[in-house]
Amino acid sequence: MRTPISPDILPPDDFDLGLVASDIDGTLLLNWKPISTATIDAIHRCQDAGIPFVLVTGRPMRWLAPIADQIPDLGRVVCLNGAVVYDIATRSVVDAHTIDSQTLAEITAAVRVDHPEARFAYETLNGGFIDREFVTGRPREARIIGDVSELAGEDVVKVLVRLETSDSQAMHDLIDPLVDGTCHASFSEPDNGLVELAPHGITKAKTLSDLCDHLGVARAQVMAFGDMPNDIEMLSWAGHGVAMGNALGSVKAIAAAVTDEVDDDGVARYLDAVLDTHPN
After folding, report:
1. Which residues does 152 contact at the CB level (< 8 Å), separation at least 6?
2. By C-alpha distance, which of 34, 141, 20 is closest to 75?
3. What is the Cα–Cα distance from 49 to 126, expressed in whole angstroms?
4. Most buried residue among 181, 226, 251, 254 by CB atoms closer than 10 A?
5. Can you tell me whether residue 273 is helix, strand or coil?
6. Sign of the CA dihedral with 8 first, then 11, 15, and 18 last
């Protein structure tokens, strides 16, 4: 029998839940498994109470189809670490922040000066592109390019960088100073050897904040769930940020609370406890 969620880690009694924001991978599901029935039920419980449930993810739009198949009544999704707002119901882009061609060339050049072995992948509103030697688990989904100049005319919304290491934190520490001021660097897995670059000033928190303004939801009313460093700004910004039990230590350190691991339905168990004790 599972231990009940401790009241000590729930929001204060005066917390007025107005919106739930959640990362996907490592938070709602793990290793591309389906979202659990318990989690889907908790999402629907929020919606039935008039509380929007917003996905905030690093995934590109084309990787949202399995989510839409399970929860077709979700509305707007913040994806690509804040670069794009996507309507999952109509499968259309609502808003996008892009990286212009000159900045893109500056980013790749700055990284390659110190790391000539660097290889890049590029997410656009028209799909994915990769350097010829970029290693990816989904090569058939990307088009190979020989030079970044071939992306002229494409709406680039995210750049991924790979070096000769699988340590994402170490990579981030190397690359972040090189691109500071031109884009925002983060990572979403500790050992996949990828650093993710978003347009300058764009984070999950920034775009979620804009979406909340659009929906008329105050920052203090937002509860957010996440597990990786690309969630840190969002959990820090939200009125109540919750780290998963499987989150990295750096994420747990800034969260207001830590729930169970994703495989133990941490989001569902925490939301149910909140809704039981904080009825709207």
Report:
1. 101
2. 20
3. 36
4. 226
5. helix
6. negative
